[in-house]
Every structure is written in C-alpha cells, then in structure tokens.
Amino acid sequence: MGAPHGARGTRASVPSTPCGRRGTPVGRRPDPTDRAVEVRYVTTSRPRFVRASYGTRVGVEHGWAPQEADVVVVPGGGYARRENPGVWAEIRRGTLPRALVAAPRCGLTVAALCTGVMLLAAAGLTRGRPCTTHHTARPDLEREGGVLKNARVVDDGDLVTAGGITSGLELALWLVRRELGADAATGIEAMLEYEARGTVWTRTRISPVGSPASGTPLGGSTGGPGWRPARCFDPTSVLPADRSLLVTEAVGDDP
C-alpha cells in the first residue's frame, strides 16, 4: 500500500468459471483457486496515477485501509538514490512509516520485499525481528535493529519479508500458499511457468494438515497448508472463505 506520496494497489477477484462438469472455457487456464480474493492498490493521499522510475504508470484508486485487509504488502524502489521519488523520500516524508506504525493488529500480516522492508524498519516493525531485504540495504536494516536471516523469504508469523527484486516471486507464492493453500500456489507456479527457489526461513514449523499444531481439521477441509503463525494465532481464523490483500509500493523500478 505505499508509493511516494502514498501506496499502490489493485482490486481483483479470482473465481473459478465452471464449464460443463469440471472444465474451463476453451483457451482459458483454470483459476488457481475458487475462493474470493480481493487485491487493492491504495494510497495515503488522493487517488491518482503513480509513475515508476522507468515510466510505468499505475492507477491507484483506493484509500489506505489496513483494518480491512488480511495482508499488507510493501514493495520498495529507489533506495539506491536519495532524491525523489523512492523509499528514501518516503522515509523522510514520514507519512507512510506513520501509517505502518498504526497498521498492525491481530489477524493482519505485514509483508515487504526488496527495499520496501526499509519502510517497515523506519516504522520500527523489524526491530528485534527476523527479516531480510535487498542485499545493498542489509547493513542498514541490521543497524535499525533487524535480525538478518540469509533467506529469500523470512516468515516471522505476522511479519514476512523478502530479499531483492526476484525474491518477490517467492514472497508472492509463499503468501498464496499460506493464505490459500498449496494447490493454489502450485497452480500459480504452473501459470507463471516458474518454480519457487530457496528455503523459506520460518520461526514456526509447517505442520501436516490434521496434526494438533496445524489448526486444521483432519482431511484439510479448510484447504489450508497447515501453517501456524507465530503471533495472534486463532484456529477459527485460519484461511477464511475470503481474503483481502492491500499492496503498497515505493515508486521505483530499481532497488
């Protein structure tokens, strides 16, 4: 949810489209999940277009509303330069870090990738927490009190961070697996023709579906992967029927 002068997000639903018994329309891939998924690009200011450093324009239509989200994602950009726009400009301006400070609540996962993690650090959300970021920002993240882990994705329950640039693919697939289940994640891998790389660092272990630690009934009727977050765990809230995702991004196509 954040870009210079705000955050960005889109809104989309991913229902399956039955055709006959179990088919899909000719020429269309099967949807990776039949559960409702909403994604928003959001801003802390007015609706507008955000221009990334290499000219990409993104329409931002929604206001900042983390209380309505299950997951907030903060990408990065522009950390290698100190002028506007980018992460440094957002840290100096302070609006997005202050919004992030107020965002955490039980049931919300805050995630960030690349140098977007430094916006979380500016908000104090990574202090004393296992985390990672783009390799050029790792010393700064450590100085801000982050506990660095050598992994492309670091999952500390309600805080999930990823390394630079292409690690965002692993972060996305990991969040899909956590929120929608392994079938959805492998379906998206097939759609992208991409397989996740590396080991995800997690504070808590991944328990088999149906085990006492998984919070999921035998047979996995909720469709979940058996993930158990480190904080604010409520077995009744694991993988509800709908999920809401808010995406934030500091404008910039480079780190």
Polypeptide structure, described:
This protein has 255 residues and is an alpha/beta fold. It contains six helices and twelve strands. Strands 4-1-12-5-6-10-9-11 form an eight-stranded mixed β-sheet. A two-stranded antiparallel ribbon has the order 2-3. Strands 7-8 form a two-stranded parallel sheet. Strand 9 and strand 10 form a beta hairpin. Helix 5 runs antiparallel to helix 6.
Q: Please state the average pLDDT score.
A: 76
> In percent, how helical is the residue content?
10-25%
Which geometry do the CA atoms define? globular
Q: What percent strand? A: 15-25%
N-to-C order of helices and strands: EEEEEHHEHEHEEEHHEE
How many helices in DSSP terms?
A: 6
For the biggest β-sheet, the strand order reads: 4-1-12-5-6-10-9-11
How is the biggest beta sheet arranged?
Answer: 8 strands, mixed
How many distinct beta strands? 12
Rg (C-alpha, Å) = 18 Å
Core attributes:
single chain, two-stranded antiparallel ribbon, 18% strand, globular
SSE blueprint and pairings:
Blueprint: E1 36-43, E2 48-51, E3 57-60, E4 62-63, E5 71-74, H1 87-93, H2 95-102, E6 109-113, H3 117-122, E7 130-131, H4 138-143, E8 147-148, E9 153-155, E10 159-162, H5 167-180, H6 182-192, E11 201-202, E12 242-247
Parallel strand pairs: 1-4, 1-12, 5-6, 5-12, 6-10, 7-8, 9-11
Antiparallel strand pairs: 2-3, 9-10
In short, what is this structure?
The chain contains six helices and twelve strands. By secondary structure, it is α/β, with parallel strands linked by helices. The protein is globular and about 45 Å long.
